[in-house]
Write a structure and sequence with these properties.
310 residues; alpha+beta; 5-stranded antiparallel beta sheet; 3-stranded antiparallel beta sheet; 17 strands; FAD-bd; FAD/NAD-bd_sf
Length: 310
């Protein structure tokens, strides 16, 4: 996909292996100039707006801790309170599993496996990182992160021996077959859904954001990448007519943000609640979450998701 996108651009339009460090703007002859500083010390100056030959819009697609989002004033993403491990297992002789998604849940922990083909199986585990009402990291999760940094094999052993040792045998077998280089750990983060609606705007002039820079969300619906592709489509529909026929480029950017914010807020909220229900906690909060998930949310969710995806 990256190669296909790159082939549509001029040969020198992309600068690889560089990270954006800062953004600032300067007023020059009544126009706004965006100055981008990269981590190698170089700067890129772009007249933000419509020129005689082109439209210039700064779109920050620089991930969860986006420099562009910070410049716009968006609130920093927060931790979901969960940790997630992922890996890929390879069966050279074939795994003989049905092509279906299997989900496993118990208190504070959930897991899943998905066979994308006849020889590989993708798996994940998700754990509540907080304990009770004190919201203190449990000792096993501290060990979990330390072992991950030192050695992926130690991380896998910790999973099998402590965190999911009483899960279904087929899940444990899949994790044992994991390729060490595919093991990853992450602390899923998200931006509060209401911040997309009532918080600081995700645009200023001809500067905006897309993808995780705009709407980081927990992975429980698997829609992070999909919504990022939607961002690109909506941006193209908004900016394309201005490029062809002229018009208000700032209005086009604003229209993109206004069109996206409600949909993104709903998807992010549903994803978070889905994850909360899969890793239930102790006490009255756990009982409340279980009631909502089993008796209310489970009945409403199918129709809600169908509406979101229309």
């Amino acid at each position: 996909m990256l190669e296909t996108l790159a082939e549509e651009l001029p040969s020198e339009a992309i600068r690889f292996s560089l990270r954006l460090r800062s953004i600032k703007t300067e007023a020059v002859e009544g126009s706004s100039i965006a100055i981008l500083r990269l981590d190698d010390g170089t700067t890129i100056k772009a007249k933000v707006g419509i020129t005689r030959l082109s439209i210039k819009v700064l779109i920050g697609c620089d991930g969860i801790h986006s420099v562009a989002a910070q410049w716009l004033g968006l609130i920093e993403p927060v931790s979901s309170g969960r940790s997630r491990t992922r890996g890929l297992s390879v069966y050279l002789e074939g795994h003989r599993m049905r092509r279906e998604f299997l989900s496993f849940m118990k208190e504070r922990t959930s897991a899943g496996i998905v066979p994308p083909n006849d020889k590989e199986v993708y798996w994940y585990t998700s754990h509540n990182s907080f304990h009770g009402d004190k919201y203190i990291l449990q000792d096993e999760f501290k060990l979990f992160v330390e072992d991950l940094v030192r050695d992926p094999e130690s991380m896998k052993n910790l999973l099998l021996e402590k965190l999911i040792n009483d899960f279904a045998p087929n899940l444990l077998d899949v994790i044992r077959h994991s390729e060490s280089e595919t093991l990853t750990w992450a602390n899923p983060m998200y931006r509060y859904p209401w911040d997309l609606i009532v918080g600081r705007s995700a645009w200023r002039g001809c500067v905006t954001v897309a993808g995780d820079a705009m709407h980081p969300m927990t992975p429980d619906l698997g829609q992070g990448g999909c919504t990022s592709l939607e961002d690109a489509v909506v941006l193209a529909r908004r900016i394309g007519p201005v490029l062809v026929g002229g018009g208000d480029v700032e209005g086009a950017v604003e229209g993109y943000v206004r069109e996206r914010r409600w949909r993104l807020a709903v998807i992010a909220a549903v994803a978070y609640v889905m994850g909360l229900g899969q890793t239930r906690v102790n006490g009255w909060l756990g009982a409340f979450v279980k009631f909502v998930m089993d008796h209310t949310f489970a009945k409403v969710l199918p129709g809600a998701i169908a509406k979101i995806y229309e």
